[in-house]
Amino acid sequence: MPEYLAPGVYVEEVEFSPNSIGGASTTITGFIGPTLFGPPYGVSELLTSYADFEAIYGGLDPLQFEDAGEETINYLAQNVRAFFQNGGQQIYVVRTFSSVARGMEEEESSQVYQPFGTQCCASATIADTASGSPADSIQLFARYPGSICGDGNLTLTFTVYTTKNVLSGKPHNPLLPSGPKDPVLLGVNNYDTVWIQQNEGSPAMAAIYWAEKYLNPVTQQWDWQFHAEGGGVPLQLSALQPAQTGVTGDVVQVVTVSVTVAFGGAFPRSISYPGLTFHPASPTSLSTFFALKPNSRSQALTVPLVFDPQSQFADGPTIARIMLTQPRSLPEIGRLKRLLNFGPLGSPPAPNLDLSILGTLGYPQLANTDRQFQVALTGGLDGFWPTPRYYEGDDSDPTAKTGLKSFEDLTDISIVAAPGSTAANEDLASDLDMADKLTIAGLLITHCEQMLYRVAVLDSINGQDLTDVAAYRGQLDSKYAALYYPWVRIVDPVSENEINLPPSGFVAGLYVANDIATGVHKAPANMVVDLAIGFELMLNKAQQDVLNPLGINCFRFFEGRGYRLWGARTISSDSQWMYVNVRRYFCYLEHSIDLGTQWVVFEPNNQALWARVAQSASSFLYTEWQAGHLMGTKPEQAYFVRCDQSTMTQYDLDNGRLICLIGVAPVEPAEFVIFRIGQWTASLTS
Question: Would strands 91-95 and 29-33 be described as parallel, antiparallel, or unpaired?
Fold first, then answer.
């Protein structure tokens, strides 16, 4: 209550409308399974296109598991593509990655869940070819494991750029502008790597430094000094001579590097990172931008490279020298010497002047290809075929959750699937393979039942006939899951051959398209399956007559109507939850009411609060009834809301409980449309 202490007029705002309940999202999807690249731990990123997925998790190229004899179709990537093609809008992806062979998890438990494992990540080394010392070698790693980075599939191109001379001069005496000039730097940042050529004296001196801006204790002014590799006495800016009348002047050029990361595979792509520097303390350095632990989540997800993961090097000149000292042929050195007017071929080089580095930095007119080199990463692995424990996940480290555990922190997901988890593993005994698939399906179901507001889209196993899929269905029962059969046939963009894909990606996309076009209350069925050119098994009506009563949703081909999803049942044995749309609609209602009534907690638990809660719920359900989402010609036929002393006892009130009872009449699909037609004798009399 406000206090009224002094006489006056008080204007206050009051609310007359009830607290409204907004509809929760039903279209956000979560997929889990192996991918070519990307993080196998931590909170997933919300993706809104296949391009977003490709940037983090790689493309459609097949996987090569260490315990599989042949390449495996990249089912999850293919299903993400199918998801967006069929109407999907937003998706989270969790990568499952096994760096330990089946059965060895206990012996190698420390390797089961590790954020950065060099044994599965592709790597390369940049070495100072002149020094030959192992200490002068920079390590490069792919940020995450994956064969997409190995065997030359990931190529790094480093291109070095130098600016024009940034050393200028200002008159020492403003009254004598043509007199001696003091050196001034233009366009230099702290920690920048610079190439300095001092032309005074014979021979000329040239070297690489890093620039530091500091407060000069003598002049009490900010000044510049330059540090060479290995430290020593810094070179002061005041020691440099700017160009002026009769004096050639020294040269200071800022050195930067751009990195282009090129991925191979069926659909090559590249990413460029321009304007990077060398000193690790610089915010734009190679060591910072490609750090083992990046400064931003976006970099951790999309920057695929780790530069010097052990932080072995501490200054820019060392890194620049190692990267730029590349072997050159004698004719090339001779060409560079002639270009630089350095004397005839065979004459000795000037002291302290490395011709290789000079050819890279000291002559800006040289083509960029003269300052460019490539490194190919090797050794990346896709790990082993992921077993159920990798789908279940681990939450012992809250910052690096894996598997389905990482989906538990994402409350907006409403559809969950594991595309590819039911692909037959030919290298595994059939009984063990079946046990894995049933376990993973059970994990998806348990996850949805615990999270309450999401459903699992389950795939049948490829190669199953009607008897097999019926037996598989018979081992599952949940009102939070639906099973789809058979697999969908498409033309693989990678091989351009026909392949069969698990249906969950297509189905999840159709769920979303259905919700956007009509609403979650409508059965997601009788919809055209985009990308499909057929199915693994072309079912007829008689075959579906066997499967539909079991709760197995089928894909069918209809002449003139295309390839369609032709089923909308859950795998529940409870007839009240027979239909997918009823289950999903109740998830929507429950989630919406949950989110829209959080304001109630800790309010005074009295009749006034009960009335407000009932009014909020009634307003929400009235809107649903008006939209045609509920049965009944009148609101009282569609729903009821009670929140009073008939729903709560004194014991409930004493224990801080407010209980609101809500009943709704959902719209069930017209699954069987029956027209009864008979002969009728027309009356000839008027």
Answer: parallel
DSSP string, 627-662: TT-B--SSHHHHEEEE-STTT--HHHHHTT----EE
> How many whole angstroms separate alpha carbon 206 and alpha carbon 184?
19
The strand pair at 415-417 and 269-276 is best described as unpaired
Whole-angstrom distance, CA of residue 64 vs CA of residue 73: 9
Helix axes 504-517, 75-85, angle to 10 degrees: 20
Query: Average pLDDT for residues 525-547, to the nearest whole number?
Result: 97
Within the chain, all domains assigned CATH 3.40.50.11780 are found at 29-116+382-581
pLDDT at 39 over 50: yes
Judge whether 62 and 73 are in contact, CB under 8 Å.
Answer: yes
- pLDDT tens per residue across span 554-580: 999 999 999 999 999 999 999 999 999
Quick one: which H or E segment has residue 504? helix 504-517
Lowest mean per-residue pLDDT among 45-54, 264-273, 533-542? 264-273
Using alpha carbons, select from 407, 345, 432 the residue that is nearest to residue 46: 407
Residue 107 CA from chain centroid, whole number: 31
Q: Which residues of 283-296 are buried (b: 16+ CB within 10 A; e: fewer)?
A: ebbbbbbbbbebee
Query: What does the pLDDT read at residue 361?
Result: 60
Query: Rounded to 10 degrees, what is the CA torsion of 195, 196, 197, 200?
Result: 180
**For residue 324, which of 411, 397, 257 has the smallest C-alpha distance?**
257
Structural contact between residues 226 and 166, judged by C-beta atoms closer than 8 angstroms: no
Predicted local confidence at residue 178, as pLDDT: 66
Token output for 413: 């997901």
The CATH number corresponding to 29-116+382-581 among 3.30.450.20, 1.10.285.10, 3.10.180.10, 3.40.50.11780 equals 3.40.50.11780
